[in-house]
């Protein structure tokens, strides 16, 4: 067996890979293997990756070959790459494209393969059988054009991803062009990587393009990629977002960076119901219904115009109900935008089959080096559980243990010390529990935004934060997504949602937009030591590790020495911390 002790990777026959963090080749190896493997664990010294069928199908769809993947493994592996791994890579990457979905006639699509035995195999599968309408020859099955999404879902569940080449309707024409100078008077052009992402999605207008996911860091301009695709396609477009604030930010960007006039753009939310050639709505609006078993009245927006493009912003958050309607609109081009394809419900396969495979991805660290996003310094601060809560914690069930640890009042003293340290910076304090956030807002004299804050009040506070009128803002999970706060350079996470990697990505993303001068962002996570919260915090950090960030783990005493902590405990007055302008 060949052995190269200088290499950082151990590839194991169970499809897991162990990557040594302290090895000089760690970063290069990580950047390559993360294109075709998924990070599972990230303790201090050895990270665990796993090769899965879906990770290989996404790699194949983005243009990676089995040869490239195997050569990457051999380049960085200490030992010979197990033969079964090489065979798995070859087999699974080859599966993408073995089945092709093609246009047939006005009513049918053709599911074709050069392997007639594969056609025979899938035609006898119960999940697929009910969708088959005929078999004109040994290599072809016919399905209804209305079952385009369902056949792809059924096939990926049995391990056969479909390459969808059935084409798309053009949609109603819309004259749209990008400005060279924005309405705000700034020069505007797509960055090289944004332009490349647009071209990969568009694929020359052919059937190879038109559906898929673009993965870019928060702050890297995913919205600009959406505008670039709209400019390419010149068609009426439906844009789905995470909330009213995001809807209005999309509208603002459309007006600022394209020549579209306001009457062409519609807002379709709980407050306004406009359907225009470009319509921006929210997932929440679409899945609203009066009764749990009732109809979704706003699903009609999908069929209200001749859309040529549907953009799914933050596609990793797509509600299950929207997957259902998306299965019915496969003839429309579909663009997914996200910073991470991780879904907490495990429905990544549905994103692959119904929105499309990952078409383009740029590692966060690459854009950081090019200064398109801020350099991030991540720090986990370990805090002792308050003495008077230790008995309550000891006898609580797991869910209450997490709540008690997350709301640990000892965190407040660390928060105040960090606000002193970052006086003059633009700071977001973000958390999961509303009562905890309200207490923090009262204590430090800062405004708070929660789900109950009316949208006009949210926009007013966001505006004051952007202008510098206020420099500290306390926010709940409503600020996780699509909130544009370009000057924010410090985020302090006081509590999180169990082990949500996607949430950690979004929260870091709030401070990653490039800054004038020192292009550095600080992300602090306050975690109660030796508790359920620390267990889940390690899971959330997987995403940041995957992107190349390392958490510095420090003790609360390093942030707030005993004398400082005692001083803050003695002064529970609102507005004590000088963080509000």
Computed structural class: alpha/beta
What is the overall pLDDT average? 87
Question: What shape does the CA trace take?
Answer: globular
Under CATH, the topology of the largest domain is which? Rossmann fold
| CATH level-four homologous superfamily name of the largest domain | P-loop containing nucleotide triphosphate hydrolases
Tell me the span between the first and last alpha carbons.
65 Å
Number of helices: 23
Tell me how many strands there are: 23
Taking all Cα atoms into account, the compactness measure Rg is 25 Å
Proportion of helical residues = 25-40%
Low-confidence stretches: 563-581
Largest sheet: 7 strands, parallel
* Proportion of residues in extended strands: 15-25%
What is the count of structural domains? 4
- CATH class annotation of the largest domain: Alpha Beta
Q: Taking strands numbered 1, 2, ... along the chain, how are they ordered across the largest sheet?
A: 12-13-11-14-15-10-16
Based on the coordinates given, report the CATH architecture of the largest domain: 3-Layer(aba) Sandwich
């Amino acid at each position: 067996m060949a052995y190269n002790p200088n290499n950082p990777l151990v590839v194991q026959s169970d499809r897991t890979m162990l990557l040594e963090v302290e090895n000089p080749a760690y970063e290069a190896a990580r950047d390559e293997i993360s294109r075709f493997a998924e990070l599972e664990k990230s303790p201090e010294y050895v990270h665990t990756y796993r090769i899965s069928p879906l990770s290989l199908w996404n790699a194949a769809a983005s243009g990676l070959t089995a040869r490239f993947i195997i050569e990457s493994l051999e380049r960085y592996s200490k030992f010979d790459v197990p033969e079964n791994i090489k065979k798995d890579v070859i087999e699974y990457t080859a599966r993408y494209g073995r089945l092709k979905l093609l246009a047939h006639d006005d009513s049918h699509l053709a599911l074709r393969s050069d392997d007639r035995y594969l056609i025979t195999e899938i035609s006898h599968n119960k999940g697929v059988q009910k969708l088959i309408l005929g078999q004109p020859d040994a290599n072809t099955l016919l399905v209804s054009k209305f079952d385009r999404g369902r056949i792809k879902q059924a096939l990926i569940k049995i391990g056969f991803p479909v390459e969808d080449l059935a084409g798309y309707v053009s949609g109603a024409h819309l004259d749209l062009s990008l400005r060279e100078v924005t309405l705000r008077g700034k020069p505007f052009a797509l960055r090289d990587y944004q332009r490349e992402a647009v071209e990969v999605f568009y694929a020359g207008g052919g059937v190879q393009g038109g559906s898929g996911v673009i993965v870019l860091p928060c702050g890297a301009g995913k919205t600009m990629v959406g505008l670039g695709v709209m400019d390419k396609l010149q068609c009426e477009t439906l844009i789905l977002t995470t909330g009213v604030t995001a809807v209005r930010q999309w509208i603002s960007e459309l007006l600022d960076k394209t020549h579209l006039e306001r009457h062409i753009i519609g807002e379709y939310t709980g407050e306004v119901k406009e359907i225009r050639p470009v319509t921006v709505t929210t997932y929440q609006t679409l899945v609203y219904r009066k009764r749990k078993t009732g109809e979704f009245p706003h699903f009609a927006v999908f069929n209200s115009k001749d859309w040529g493009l549907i953009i799914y912003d933050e596609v990793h958050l797509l509600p299950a109900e929207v997957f259902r309607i998306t299965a019915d609109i496969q003839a429309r081009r579909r663009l997914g935008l996200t910073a991470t394809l991780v879904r907490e419900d495990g429905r990544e396969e549905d994103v692959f089959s119904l929105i499309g495979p990952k078409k383009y991805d740029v590692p966060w660290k690459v854009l950081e080096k090019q200064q398109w996003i801020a350099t991030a310094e991540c720090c986990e601060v370990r805090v002792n559980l308050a003495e008077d809560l230790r008995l309550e914690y000891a006898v609580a069930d797991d869910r209450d243990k997490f709540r008690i640890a997350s709301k640990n009042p000892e965190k407040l003293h660390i928060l105040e010390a960090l606000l002193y340290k970052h006086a003059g910076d633009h700071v977001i304090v973000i958390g999961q529990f509303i009562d905890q956030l309200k207490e923090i807002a009262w204590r430090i004299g800062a405004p708070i935004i929660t789900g109950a804050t009316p949208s006009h009040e949210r926009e007013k506070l966001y505006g004051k934060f952007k202008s510098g009128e206020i420099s500290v803002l306390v926010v709940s999970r409503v600020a996780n997504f699509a909130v544009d706060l370009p000057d924010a350079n410090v985020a302090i996470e006081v509590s999180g949602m169990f082990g949500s990697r996607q949430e950690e990505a979004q929260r870091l993303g709030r401070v990653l937009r490039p800054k004038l001068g020192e292009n550095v962002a600080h992300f602090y996570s306050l975690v109660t030591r030796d508790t359920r919260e620390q267990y889940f915090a390690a899971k959330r950090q997987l995403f940041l590790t995957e992107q190349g960030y390392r958490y510095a783990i420090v003790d609360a005493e390093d942030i707030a020495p005993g004398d400082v902590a005692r001083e803050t405990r003695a002064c529970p007055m609102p507005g004590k911390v000088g963080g509000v302008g």
